[in-house]
Amino acid sequence: MTPPKPASRPDNVSLWRYLRLFRRDILSAQPQRLYRAWMAEFRTPFFRSYLINQPDLIRTVLKERPLDFPKSDRVSEGLRPLLGNAVFLTNGATWQSQRRIIDPAFEGGRLRDVFSPMLAAAEAAVDRLNSGSEVTEIEEFSGHVAADIIFRTLFSIPISHHIAKQVFAEFRAYQRSQPILNLAAFVPLPRWFPRFHRRATKNSAANIRKMITRLTQERIEAIRNGCAPDDLATKIMTQADPETGRRFGAKEMVDQVAIFFLAGHETSAAALAWALYLIALCPEHQERLAAEVSSLPETPDFADISRLKFTRNVFREALRLYPPVPMMVRQTTCPERFRDRRLSRGSQVVISPWHLHRHERLWTNPDAFDPDRFATDDGQKSLRDAFIPFSAGARVCPGAGFAMLEGPLLLALLVRRYKFITVPGREPVVQAHLTVRSKDGIWLRVEAR
């Protein structure tokens, strides 16, 4: 069964046409050959970029020499108004210090600590979902539950809290107004030059940061008074960098909360929505999933989720086919030689989970939805060499384990209660904006089991 994917552009288009396509949707702006190429070069008047699909080159950039290939400033330009100096955007010593403070909160042993609020949010979402003759826009539903999980695990408040509700509403406005790249991504601009962010984007970012600042200041006061809950925000705000002893100040904590919400809410919502669409498109897989989760107790505990092997593979396959972050961009700090090409200092190195996950030389039947592929030797090899939905190496997403607990849990509880059915004539149109979403939403009919 082959789910939808964007049509590729012709091999040869003008730079102007390419930029227009890229700004609208980065996936359909790319040529078909990238699904087979080990490496491709793109030239503009201002810089060269090189997309790499060859596993050993990706390993060099992400795992073996990550400090030699920092995050590209061109990508960060569009996100700076919201994220400030968040760990997602920083490089070098600043990034290393931030990770030393953040990482302990997301260590494997601490995932058990977030399970209870995560389960509470999941159960509330299951009860809230309407079943019957009306169709449901699944991306909106998944965004709501993902936001609820972030607020409960980060600040111990449900999404019904007045500030949480306002932040969620503003994030939806931000998603609609924020292009994935702005002018500064294509044209080198001096620091003093205006960045031409859309007014609506800047207003939404400012409103979000204002509300997050309020939550952060309240938590600082609670920590000072010894009455703060033991949640992720408290863990991160009280964690010192083991090498320097410094802690996050209020402004830097606001930056980090912004990226936790953006990454933890936006990406999880997208992955869950695509997973539900895929099982609706393939009822036999949905029934296998339902049979597996029928063994769960009424209120599952942390250990129960590890038994859901097929459920986990369904979610993993959704991440492969629709990786929430479709492309990552690094920058060379010195001349490099990749394959037969010389990369000058300052070149852009693009790693595309979208193309890597569907690469014709790395995956068997790459466009098919096949959760069982991970049980084969070929699938396991591809998993090691060509599966990076959360990046890899030192800059792997600190919340990767969190997401791989959240996704299967939500899938399990939802499929235990409901059947998800596709709606004729409402096939989703894949489009990459902040994440890989559907242009007009994902519409499914939901029936009680």
Could you give a quick summary of the protein structure above?
Helix content is 50%, strand content 10%. With 449 residues, it is of the alpha+beta class.
Give an overview of the whole structure.
This protein is an alpha+beta fold and 449 residues long. The protein has one domain: Cytochrome P450 (Cytochrome p450, Orthogonal Bundle). It has helices at residues 15-24, 55-64, 73-83, 92-102, 111-128, 138-155, 162-177, 183-186, 199-224, 232-238, 250-281, 283-293, 302-305, 309-321, 353-357, 377-385, 400-417; strands spanning 39-43, 48-52, 135-137, 328-331, 336-338, 341-343, 348-351, 418-422, 430-432, 436-438, 443-448. The radius of gyration is 21 Å and the shape is globular. The model is unreliable at 192-196 (pLDDT under 50).
CATH superfamily: Cytochrome P450
Shape, per Cα inertia axes = globular
Distance between the termini: 24 Å
Report the order of strands and helices. Answer: HEEHHHHEHHHHHHHHHEEEEHHHEEEE
The CATH class, by name, is Mainly Alpha
CATH architectural designation: Orthogonal Bundle
Number of strands: 11
Task: Give the spatial strand order of the biggest sheet.
Answer: 1-2-7-4
